[in-house]
Design brief:
The chain is of the alpha+beta class. The protein has eight helices and ten strands. The protein has helices spanning 5-16, 19-31, 44-58, 85-92, 114-118, 146-153, 179-183, 241-244, and strands spanning 99-104, 110-113, 123-130, 136-145, 161-166, 174-178, 188-193, 196-197, 207-209, 222-228. The chain has a five-stranded mixed beta sheet. A hairpin with a 5-residue loop joins strand 3 (123-130) and strand 4. Helix 1 (5-16) packs across helix 3. The longest helix is centred in the first third of the chain and has 15 residues, at 44-58. It is globular, with a radius of gyration of 18 Å. The two termini are 21 Å apart. The chain binds the ligand Nc1nc2c(c(=O)[nH]1)N[C@H]1C(S)=C(S)[C@@H](COP(=O)(O)O)O[C@H]1N2 and molybdenum atom. Molybdenum atom binds at residues 78, 131-133, 215-216.
Length: 253
């Protein structure tokens, strides 16, 4: 989106005006479509403040990339591999039947195998995964830019978010990002880590990597993308299971 300098200054001024400015920021943000979907709760105005300020002032900024010597020797996988039978069957089969489905507000709903995804231009990044609980690690991720896949499917102009979910299973989870984050060159559908296939513990065969936001936005065991203009129909309406647990929908770092 384009925001004139005048409007930008308006929101920036509101965001530095303290608590009294929150309401103003909220109104301006609503006017320019900069309200995150969790804007309604008690933390709502604060969430809007962060999201609107980040989006207006640094929409194109890059997550820090590190030299390879900085790759963590002992990266920490948070959580166990899914025990669900459906997942174990895929794993036993070398994930040959694993697909990524792309649907919703796209011109061409598509379905990709892992081989399809690996055939696209490869993106690599050495970035940090930072968990909201305070720990982090640095790794090299390889994969295909989410924007590449979205462009193949053709995102409709009304689209505002991309919702992404694991395989349907007991440990199902989902989250979402706005179109600006989805088209950002560092937002990756990742199938490789530190020069190897992405290990199951780290989300293999496929995970989302959103290096400009906290770890919980980097959903593991990815199998579906849905492009949408509203998050209302997804779960409890926040478009994010993490937000349902009380974490901020926008988790910019
Ligand atoms: N499917 C799935 N994806 C997930 C999670 C999860 O529990 N299930 N945890 C998230 C959280 S809170 C963090 S911090 C990162 C951890 O990534 P790691 O396992 O590579 O350390 O994965 C995220 N993706
Ligand atoms: Mo996390």
């Amino acid at each position: 989106m384009r925001v004139s300098r005048r409007k930008l200054i308006g929101v920036a001024a509101a965001t530095t005006a303290g608590v009294a400015g929150l309401a103003v920021a909220d109104r301006l943000a609503a006017k320019y479509g900069l309200q995150p979907p969790d804007a309604g709760g008690i933390y709502g105005p604060g969430a809007t403040l962060t999201y609107a300020a980040q989006r207006l002032l640094s929409a194109g900024s890059m997550a820090r990339e590190f030299p390879r010597q900085k790759i963590s020797r002992m990266p920490y996988p948070n959580g166990k591999a899914p025990q669900d039978e459906v997942f174990q069957t895929h794993a036993g089969n070398g994930f040959k039947e694993w697909n990524l489905e792309v649907g919703g507000m796209v011109l061409r709903p598509l379905k990709f195998s892992l081989a399809d995804l690996k055939g696209f231009p490869v993106s690599e990044q050495v970035t940090q995964l930072a968990c909201e609980e305070g720990w982090s690690y640095i790794a090299e991720w390889s994969g295909v830019a989410l924007s590449h896949v979205l462009n193949l499917a053709g995102v409709m102009p009304e689209a505002r978010y991309v919702v992404y979910a694991t395989l349907p299973m007991k440990s199902f989870t989902f989250d979402s990002i706005d179109i600006a984050e989805a088209l950002h060159p560092q937002t990756l559908i990742s199938y490789g880590m530190n020069g190897q296939e992405l290990p199951i513990a780290f989300g293999g065969p496929l995970r989302m990597r959103v290096p400009r936001q906290l770890g919980y936005k980097s959903v593991k065991y990815l199998s579906r993308l849905t492009v949408t203009d509203s998050l209302k129909g997804f779960g409890k309406g926040l478009g994010s299971m993490d937000a349902e647990y009380g974490y901020s929908w926008y988790a910019g770092i």
